[in-house]
Amino acid sequence: MARQPADGQADAFNIPSKYWDIFNESPGGVSIATDPLCKIILHNRKASRMLRVSSGGDFSHSSVHPPKVTVYRNRIELSAGEMPMQRSGRRKVDVLDEVLEFVWEDGHRMISVWNATPILNGEGDALGVLAVSEDITDFVLQERRMQADKEFFENLAAERKEEQAKLRIELERLDRLNLIAQMAASISHEVRNPIATVRGFLQLMHQLQPTGQLSAHYELIVGELDRANAMIGNFLSLSKSPAADHRERTGLLEAFNAVMPLLEADALMTGKKVTFEPAAVPPVDMNAREMQQVLINLVRNGLEASPPGGEIRVGLFEDSHAVGFTVRDEGEGMPPDVLERLGIPFFTTKGSGTGLGLSICYEIIRRHGAHIKAESGSGGTTFTVSFPKDA
Prior knowledge:
Beta-Lactamase, Heat Shock Protein 90, seven-stranded antiparallel sheet, five-stranded mixed sheet, 11 helices, nucleotide-binding
């Protein structure tokens, strides 16, 4: 005997009993409404299983008591009138290949594709709607998992690529530091001693002939020898052993106040300005002379980068994790690829120079267990040096 829909709905839908099995046992989901507003929609076994109702049950968002399920199309929630069967009956048009995602209150999720067509009489009026549906949940969820995996591995590859680029830069920096250390070991004795001898004889000759045509030349030669000696000192600073540091608890304010007049004079000579913004911050363990050298190098770099009339601002700060200082200039800024290479010996964007100034700063800060960060934009560049607070 043929099975009938629940609650005698076969009679309400005028479905002859002999056709009920064909409707109910169809391998695909089949749904039928006998009014254009789709207030009652009868579903066969396959569609009922998808919609979580008994076989032959009613499931319609247009009913007086709509089901407690949210439906999405392209991640946008649909109202009753936007459902495929309701649109088909109201507009008397076919609705094809519409993918809907049903989400129940208990978290159950079902994704299906729907095709709906209006049932028209001879005059073209809509009497109801017929729809077929198919559950594609497994396929779509698998596709989403594959897409998520693809994005994960793409992001992982990008991160690894970025890490490798940073590692290459760091290895390049270490290779150059190692080369400098080897050079410094020989330069210290092989070059500095002859320089000291030549400088001493020049000073003696100048004393024997304090005035005359050669006086200015003596001063020029001695100045150049001093500059060469300072450059060798820079090399030695980069190869310095951390054990050679002499540190004590010192205030940044006290250390920087001692060199600010020098920096203000440098700025005045170039038609620019250095502003110090003091603040009461806790002292830190540091070699005051080395940290003064860091400040001098950063400020002088900022003066070179800033336009005429520009201002360099030096400030102290303290937060919950660190104590430190900032140096801000008003230059044109630096692109990201230059920022990544800052601190590498011999790397410079200047027309002249060795590229050792920032390398010395970075090495001193590294030896102190502190951190340096450079941020740059069209309004200038800011260097932030921070000492972690004691735990």
